[in-house]
Design goal:
190 residues, 7 helices, mainly alpha
Length: 190
């Protein structure tokens, strides 16, 4: 195994650690995940991972896969503590609907590039409620999962073989969204 794969594995472990920290904060009632966001954050990257893997991407897809697996753990953990629940409103459901619609459109196309584009759109629509919540109520979020995800995705760039849309699109999107959420969450702490 080349050194590049080790970097990707280190990033994946960091991302899992960040997700587990968020799960711990959720179980303690200190983090209040938006279930629409975290469910869609689980689905969209997992679809993008399958599409990229089927197109021949290997180690570079691991950070994207972890970007879906960690949110799945957070989503599940949100059901174990009633204090960890964030009340959903019409906007949350609307974003969730657009997120699901993007996934359905991907299913119709069967094209890996289109799948990744719709996965990004889906993930972005799912991120809107948490971005708004992070801006208004940063104390309901924990930065660990986002920082670990950002670190993992950055390490994943070392494993990219072809600098094309299929390998670059979702990681670049993840850098943007994680950076934005970190900025919102940490803006009042410094």
């Amino acid at each position: 195994m080349a050194w590049v794969q080790y970097l990707v594995i280190i990033g994946a472990i960091a991302q899992l650690w960040g997700s587990l920290v968020y799960v711990k904060e959720t179980l303690a009632g200190r983090a209040k995940p938006n279930r629409v966001t975290w469910l869609m954050w689980a689905i969209a990257p997992l679809i993008a991972s399958v599409a990229a893997f089927m197109s021949g991407v290997t180690w570079a897809v691991l950070p994207v896969f972890m970007a879906g697996f960690g949110p799945f753990l957070v989503f599940i953990s949100s059901f174990f503590n009633k204090k960890a629940y964030w009340k959903l409103g019409k906007w949350d459901y609307l974003c969730g609907l657009f997120s699901v619609l993007a996934l359905v459109l991907w299913g119709i196309t069967k094209n890996p590039s289109i799948a990744i584009l719709f996965a990004i759109i889906s993930d972005g629509c799912a991120a809107i409620p948490t971005a708004i919540k992070s801006w208004k109520y940063p104390e309901t979020e924990h930065y660990g999962a986002y920082a670990a995800s950002l670190f993992s995705v950055l390490l994943g760039f070392f494993a990219i073989k072809s600098w094309n849309f299929i390998e670059l699109a979702f990681p670049i999107y993840l850098i943007f969204i994680c950076g934005l959420l970190l900025r919102f969450i940490l803006r009042k702490r410094f």
